[in-house]
Backbone:
């Protein structure tokens, strides 16, 4: 401990403070300890002062990625417009499309129908989906991205509004396993957050430690946002830049045009330590 011995000529409390005495010309500068010199006490120039907000925040830990299947892990091959017309009829399709330019939620729409009419609609949808299975192709970059996640020991899950048979065929044909892998038999389906929250619970992780990746704002991004997860929109053809989607109050955390780009954003924005 350093003791300072300075003569006290006044009982004024201000004079008891050696820093205040710097402003007192009567204080003998020659008796001032060197560590209390003006150069020591001088503040750095304002240009060198850094607010707390400029300090780089630590990267968030990413513990799992959940993918959509059709149009995300697989190349889109189903003609949805033709399927909707077959289910709804041309007149009804045009009316609903005009009211919902950003897309038709056909599964939600037919839920209000009678059981007999629903059964007929599901049969039409299943026929279109089966045609899609016959032409199933893996999305470029999907295998590489899954290998990258496996190397980092980051879990992979899947949520689709397609049927379980489609998920089983995907696993068998491409040899990439996702667990859990939830099809539309799991209710309620996307955009309800229930399937994503179920996966988080199964993994024993928090939703904000998981990213939802998909090609639909209304299904995938909405599901992720509703669950409190991170979201990444795959927009291969730039369709979400059109006026049809300007009124949607949904903004993904990330947006990419290919699965290959997901590599870079994960490495740049997250702690991927195994």
Residues:
């Amino acid at each position: 401990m350093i003791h300072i011995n300075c003569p006290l000529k006044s009982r004024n409390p201000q004079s008891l403070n050696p820093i205040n005495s710097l402003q007192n010309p009567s204080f003998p500068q020659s008796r001032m300890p060197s560590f209390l010199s003006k150069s020591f006490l001088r503040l750095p120039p304002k240009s060198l002062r850094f607010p707390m907000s400029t300090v780089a925040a630590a990267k968030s830990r990413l513990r799992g990625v959940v993918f959509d299947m059709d149009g995300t892990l697989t190349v889109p091959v189903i003609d949805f417009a033709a399927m909707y017309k077959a289910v709804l009829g041309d007149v009804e399709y045009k009316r609903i499309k005009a009211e919902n330019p950003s897309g038709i939620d056909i599964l939600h729409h037919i839920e209000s129908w009678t059981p007999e009419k629903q059964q007929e609609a599901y049969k039409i949808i299943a026929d279109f989906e089966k045609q899609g299975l016959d032409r199933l192709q893996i999305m470029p970059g999907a295998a590489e991205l899954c290998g990258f996640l496996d190397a980092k020991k980051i879990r992979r899950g899947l949520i689709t509004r397609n049927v379980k048979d489609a998920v089983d065929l995907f696993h068998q044909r491409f040899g990439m396993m996702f667990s859990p892998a939830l099809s539309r038999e799991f209710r309620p389906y996307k955009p309800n957050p229930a399937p994503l929250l179920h996966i988080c619970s199964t993994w024993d992780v928090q939703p904000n430690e998981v990213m939802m990746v998909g090609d639909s704002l209304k299904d995938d991004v909405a599901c992720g946002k509703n669950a409190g997860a991170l979201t990444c929109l795959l927009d291969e053809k730039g369709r979400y830049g059109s006026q049809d989607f300007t009124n949607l109050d949904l903004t993904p955390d990330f947006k990419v045009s290919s699965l290959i780009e997901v590599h870079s954003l994960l490495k740049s924005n997250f702690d991927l330590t195994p």
Summary: The CA atoms of residues 9 and 15 lie 8 Å apart. The beta strands are 60-61, 64-67, 155-159, 181-182, 210-214, 230-234, 254-256, 270-271. The mean pLDDT is 83. The chain has ten helices and eight strands.
